[in-house]
Amino acid sequence: MTEPSSIRDRNGLTEQEYLQAYDASIYERPSVTVDMLIFTVMNKEQDNYRKLPEKSLQLLLIKRGEHPFIGQWALPGGFVSVHERVEDAALRELKSETNIENIYMEQLFTWGDVERDPRTRVISCSYMALVDRTSLDIQAGDDAADAKWFEVAYHVFQEKKTNLDHGYELEKLLKITLRNGLETVSATVKIVEVVSGRSTRVSREVVDSQGIAFDHAKIIEYAIERLRNKIEYTDIAFNLMPPLFTLSELQQVYEVLLGKELLAAAFRRKMASMVIETNEFTKDAGHRPSKLYRFNPNWNRN
Questions:
Q1: What's the pTM?
Q2: What pLDDT was estimated at residue 301?
């Protein structure tokens, strides 16, 4: 068999000769960035200590301290260096802008609309993580003027379906509202799903944004959709739980992530293989003692 290094192309060049003569300036090179979506679930403030605290989905945002979109809220992120892995850039930017480190993130999607960044042509790789907020010390740094957790509200307010010859087109308008204390930012995202035969094409567009920088509103929408899908078949929700928890607390977390109420009996059957019952009980004042459980790392994922 001929060695690959000795094979010559149509111009009579070996691979080594080709690389030595290669001109990287032939193609205009876009910049690459990373954006991180760090979600958590936290208790809402309430007056009645006898009730189980309500929980809310929250997302970490940073306030931009520089142009463009100075003063607006954005996902933590930044540019990838030429000699840096994309994953390493995500961890570096998260640490420098928010002081978060040593967490597991998984790649969400790659965003490449041509005019998504007013500075230059930018392609962004987004990453997502679910974390226990109580274990983190959030501090704004680098070019971030501030870093805060925002409560996430998400709802579809308009939907239109049009039948096509071999399928249909479904258009949805949804609003994302992010709140932190007295500060509220929001955006409207249009999602168009075209189904033709066995082919499906989905597009997203930010049609209005009030205080959310770049195209980050549609990245947030997509992340919530993926999160709701993943929670149905993975154990990702347990990243939000303490070592010991009640089944009612676990159910609340699932309800917050899915955006709907669940039947207690059906939920407990579903969780049966994913949790291990302990001999410990809660000791909270004002509440009846409840059995505590822990995550079962050996649960059957099939």
A1: 0.89
A2: 66
Selection from 97, 44, 43 nearest residue 66 by Cα = 97
> Which of these, 132, 144, 123, lies nearest to 76 by C-alpha position?
144
Tokens in use for 284? 């909270």
Distance CA 251, CA 132 (A): 16
On whether the CB atoms of residues 57 and 133 are closer than 8 A, the answer is no
- Within 140-299, where are the H helices? 216-230, 247-258, 264-271
Express each pLDDT in 117-155 by its tens digit: 999 999 999 999 999 888 788 888 777 889 999 999 989
User: Would you give the DSSP letter of residue 82?
Assistant: T
Tell me the per-residue pLDDT of 168-194, one tens digit each, with 9 for 90 and over.
999 999 999 999 988 999 999 999 999
* Contact in structure between 293 and 280 (CB atoms under 8 Å): no
Could you give the CA distance from residue 11 to residue 22 in angstroms, rounded to a whole number?
A: 13
8: nearest Cα among 21, 19, 18, 23: 18
